[in-house]
What does this fold into?
Amino acid sequence: MESTWQHTTVLLNEAVDALLTKPDGTYIDATFGRGGHSRFILSQLAPEGRLIAFDKDPEAVSVANAIEDERFSIRHEGFSGLRHLEGNSVAGVLMDLGVSSPQIDNPARGFSFRGDGPLDMRMDTTRGESVADWLATAQAGQIAEVIREFGEERFAVQIAKAVVARRQERGPLATTAELAQLVAGAVKTREPGQDPATRTFQALRIFINAELEELQQALEASLDILEPHGRLVVISFHSLEDRIVKQFIARNSREVFDRRAPFAQPKAMKLKALERIKPTAEEIAANPRSRSAIMRVAERTEA
Ligand SMILES: C[S@@+](CC[C@H](N)C(=O)[O-])C[C@H]1O[C@@H](n2cnc3c(N)ncnc32)[C@H](O)[C@@H]1O
It folds into this structure.
């Protein structure tokens, strides 16, 4: 089922350089996508090294299944499944968050307001509810909350009311073009260079895939599975994701003092923040989708 849609890997050299500290370690690519990072990691690993990849998307998994390398395995599950791996067993965890270009570019996946397709947006098309299913029954208040919180959209209430009115008048929204058109009618001021539907589509995608909850869970799990000096490398593409990663690293990069036990030793820090890297101007020129990327790197301490 290999699709024709391509993905250009973001921060390829930078991410793999930051991730790999020893060629015989076990590494995680938590977001296989089309395997750009995975293939480069495999090219750097010794015969004893291992790479375990995750992806929710069955199309990504079918691409991964074609990799014939006994050091490599793929799991079709969300990366919160990292918590099932053995503690203290992994030399590096890479997460390249969000959607892949094949997901965005293929109208049949329903992620994009460009082109027309079913209003789906699930990364894992084998389970869960589509955006169309959810919008068909959700209350206006819930819709507004999602669009405001995950899209930082000022016109969230107007959009939510328009969704409910349309549902009552003509039945539920079924396609991406119908939603894009409805949002364009409800958003009164245009942001330069941005389609009025950008924020709403981002919000619904984050919500339907529980992206931020799963990111938080995977970050926590990575603390348990990383061995001392193991690396956590996370590439995020919008401020909501980056804020979670930044705060997680900051929280775990300081000693925790228990105010109820003033004479107890503070709990040692679990991470050391190493780097924050953005794509170069050359990379952005070659791949405009990389422009919002921020990569953060931290190292597991011995605690
Ligand atoms: C930006 S792409 C990764 C691209 C990849 N690094 C490459 O070079 O081809 C993100 C991928 O992560 C997957 N993904 C996003 N969130 C996920 C999650 N919570 N669990 C598992 N996979 C996820 C998406 O399905 C998508 O295929």
